[in-house]
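Write out this protein's structure.
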Amino acid sequence: MPKLTDTQTTILNAAAQRADNLAMPLPKGLHGAAAQKVVSMMMMRGWLEEVDADIRKGEPLWRETGDGHGTTLIATEAGLLAIGIEPVVVGMVTKLRKATPESDPQAPASDVPKPVNIRTGTKQAQIIALLQRPEGASITEIAAETGWMPHSVRGMISGGLKKKLGLPVASEKVGGRGTVYKLDAA
């Protein structure tokens, strides 16, 4: 794990909790030459990336490019890995955020994806890894691995993974194993 300064850690942690991993706005008190130095170093290491800002969404600007356009900063997968978010989770969350939702003119404007923050080494991250195996995992297998009761495992799958994180968890009956849950890692 790379050595990060307190400021770099603060920027990446805040970005991990925002929709689309936006690193803007920067922490209070960080501006001018100090902000430029920190951001330049993080971009050089591949932890931040400068992208076109979507003014219609009200994304905060990092810098203006003239002609009414500007750029903003986002945390990259490498940046999220630097603060300890597991690669499996980073890949899944990035894939879900990059997926273009079908536009529904009747959908309310509040259908913005919720920010996702999954720490490394948690039971939730452990369950996600089990579900991403090609063979998936049954409730019994997950309970044995985590030490949880079966009803807690079912609650995590339906409430924590499907509803809260919006992950596409599929289930099927398999002879000898019962219901097997899978999370498409592709």
